[in-house]
Structure formats: C-alpha cells, structure tokens
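Researcher: Please translate sequence to structure tokens.
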Amino acid sequence: MLPRGWTIIGTTRSTDKARAMTERGVTPLIWPGNPLPLAQATHLLTSVSPRDDDPVLAAHGANIARATHLRWVGYLSTIGVYGDQQGGWVDEDTIPNAASARAQARVQAENAWQNACNTAGVRLHIFRLAGIYGTGRGPIAKLREGRAQRVVKPGQYFSRIHQADIGQALDLAIHSDIGSRVYNLCDDKPAPPQDVLACAARIAGLPVPPEVPFEDADLSPMARSFYADSKRVRNDRIKRELGLKLLYPDYESGLRAILDAEG
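Model: Translation complete:
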C-alpha cells in the first residue's frame, strides 16, 4: 500500500523493529508508551493478542468508540475460537467453542471490538487466522534449525495460511464496501502436521524426521496445547465476498514459494 501513497504508522515495543520499519517506509510508534494517533487515521488494524482483556481497548477503547471518522477497522483473531471439532469442518457460522483460557480471551476480544465499532458506527472485519507461515517462519525454518518433530496424533488436523495471502486479504477488505463481517483466513488444504513437515523436508532436500507419538513428543506447554484442538476450516466466504484468490492454496505451493524466495 505504500507505493499507492498510503501513510502507514505501525506500533512496536522494540527499537530494533522500529528501525526496520523506518527502512521499509513505515512510521514506527513505540507502544505502549505513546498515544495512538487515531485522529490522523482512516483505517485501523490490530493484531495485538489479548491477555485477560484486550490491551488496545483497555488503553484506548473510549477513544476508539468515539472515532466515527474511521472508515474501517480490522481485528486479527484466530481459528482457535472454534475449539476442538474432532477433525470436523467449521465455517464462520459455527458457534465458537473455545476451551482454553487463551481462546476464550479471543472470543471476548472479538465481542469487545465489535461493541466499540458499533458504538462508533464503523465497520469491523474480524479475521480468524489459521497457523501463519512464510519466509523465515514455518516448517522449513524449523527443519534447518533442528527443531522439527513429526508429531503424530491420530485424527489431528491443522489449517494454515501463507503470510502473503494474509496481506492480500487485508488489502481486499480495506478497499471493499462490505459491512462488519467475520472471515476465516486459511488455505484450501488442512492436513495432519506430520504430512506438512515431510513435504517441507522433501522439497528442501533435508532428512525427513522420524515420526514421534504425541504422548512422547518434546513439546512446550504452549505447543502441546495446540494439539487439544483438531478441526478443518472452510474459507468459502472470504473467496465469495472479497474475491480472494489464494496465491498459495495449499501448503506445498507455499513451501515451494519460500524456497524460491530464498534463492
């Protein structure tokens, strides 16, 4: 959006990241610690994850609820709000079934953002993101760093989304005239995690790690918690309403693009 003449202000807690943002043409703002320039904004996108409540709304909720000049607000949430579906399919009409405290906080944050935007009379697009991968993050990076395990849990499915497809979905949403809406943002091919890791190893020319039963896997508490939920996520709405054409509709095409980008 920068080449089209947009001014973008991005928050960060890190001075190193602030310098990197400046180099890319983004005006950095250290936050928390500085006021958000809401009066200058036409569009607001938040990816800040909640703790007990949403940190952005806790600090600026009253101002956001009065920001009637905004044209669009986007909130990056997670498909974790659907909870465990035992490998079944979900779409945006599926009632959230969050079990973990982390996912329950997401549901509360979604509702809080919708209330604030309703008060302001501003349209809100909530994007429930699948697992994000792309250059420098994802299975190929884990393989190279020696951190990859092919953890096998029967019936386990994960959905994922390439970072470039997140970018183009947000661009389409910002330039649309669709009112407040919830969108799943994932690719077309949910899959068991061990299959994705085997594919990444094969196309990168790296050894395929042996399978490890879930019960025996060396996982952090956070990583282990993700295996509590198994579901396959549909993305029909965002294609139909925003016209999204995925650059990487499956994990193999996305992984090959990562290798191509790395040369």
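Researcher: Any highlights?
Model: Residues 35-262 form a domain with the Rossmann fold fold (CATH 3.40.50.720).
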